[in-house]
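question for whoever is on the cluster today: can someone run the full assembly for these? four chains, 552 residues total. i dont have access anymore since they changed the login thing
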Amino acid sequence: MPDLVRVSLAIDKPLLARLERIMAASGYTNRSEFIRDVVREQMVQRDWQEDREALATITVLFKHDQRGLCDKLTDLQHHHHKEILFTSHVHLDEERCAEVLVLRGRPSRLSHIADELKKQKGVLHAALSVSSTGRRIP
Amino acid sequence: MPDLVRVSLAIDKPLLARLERIMAASGYTNRSEFIRDVVREQMVQRDWQEDREALATITVLFKHDQRGLCDKLTDLQHHHHKEILFTSHVHLDEERCAEVLVLRGRPSRLSHIADELKKQKGVLHAALSVSSTGRRIP
Amino acid sequence: MPDLVRVSLAIDKPLLARLERIMAASGYTNRSEFIRDVVREQMVQRDWQEDREALATITVLFKHDQRGLCDKLTDLQHHHHKEILFTSHVHLDEERCAEVLVLRGRPSRLSHIADELKKQKGVLHAALSVSSTGRRIP
Amino acid sequence: MPDLVRVSLAIDKPLLARLERIMAASGYTNRSEFIRDVVREQMVQRDWQEDREALATITVLFKHDQRGLCDKLTDLQHHHHKEILFTSHVHLDEERCAEVLVLRGRPSRLSHIADELKKQKGVLHAALSVSSTGRRIP
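^ ran it for u. tokens below:
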């Protein structure tokens, strides 16, 4: 990690004690790494709320035997090829599939794509995860 | 703030720069206070997930003219008088009221109370907030 | 409930069976009431995302002995008297208080008020709940 | 969709009107499909809270040049090979990678895996999405 600096943090003893119990419970051995991770989590949430470019996954759960659905999903995805980096597929059981789309773009746009997929007949669920491209959480 | 100690935090420059931009945007002038608040937020969420005693509000939105509802809500609340610290009431318009319950107890129990209130006919919504008694976030 | 209409809902048997198990577990005895509540919950979330007038609570947890804090909190609240309908207060222990603000206004504004309260020194946490005035979830 | 049944839903006119405006805004043309999707969303959330087998993704954002990190991530993943169905990888820029894990298992276990990945030095973020295998939302 280049360009590491040290800053001083004032903290009252009881809060520090609780922080260290949480760190231990989570398996962190380095206090700075723990605090940096907590701060980064806030940054990812903030970027999402402010609609700044993000990385996301959409997990689409569907019944592959719904007539015309596979074609429809493919069409829809091509319409959003700029945001969709790639997709992966898993056959869950006889009836059901999950397709995981990995996307990059503005959160409002990514949410819209998730909604469009979800409303198709035969699609049971579409789950959106909120991540970051890392540009804004260095 | 008694028993204040200073700890050193290693952080890479770009992350620190972003942290300071966020602080400024939120109006924080003290870096330590900002980091303490971010850490406390994690603690409140963690206590809630681990079902440890919490402070909460339940905001119940209802139509006061629904027959028998006021009696029913009062009965239910008395049944949970150990968790309910007090309630406040606001007349929203001709038809609708909101009652805000302030509660203290285990999150699983508080969620159950919110569910019980919500399922009554005439209750339009019950919103639960997640806070802390402060014992565990000193 | 005036102006009640009946609409027909097509649903596959396995989904209906699961829905009825959930209803039973939650203590609902009326299927229509259960579905109406699920739909209303979506409406409240949607209004919040679209920044439409909402009802909310902010639970502020603080240390009353922090110098100047009570005055500061009172000043801040008067600055937002248009949104704050009323407040209630609970003495949690020797050291800590919780103040519950009940507010009405645009979500972006209510979030801003919560942030402003949270950043004060001596304020340990500020929790925002998301509810509705009922106008848009009839 | 086999075994389709029709159930009757009582709903007051203003709520139905709002529901239809939301449907139109979301692009749904079929009222039953909209209500089924809203109900399914509740089921996925409920299964997750009750720690029942789920499908999830974990998006791990990391700096590939952090010494030893790739090996460490691979080791960790092998330790959880029972839950991890497969992984995909994307090179975000010169410095950063994202690895998307698709998993199946109990939510408490999947959350634990996400935490373990996140705490590694060089991992900037780990985002967990909440989906379903579809078994319980038929």
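summary bc i know u wont read the tokens: The first helix of chain A runs from residue 13 to 26. Helices of chain A lie at 13-26, 31-49, 69-79, 107-118.
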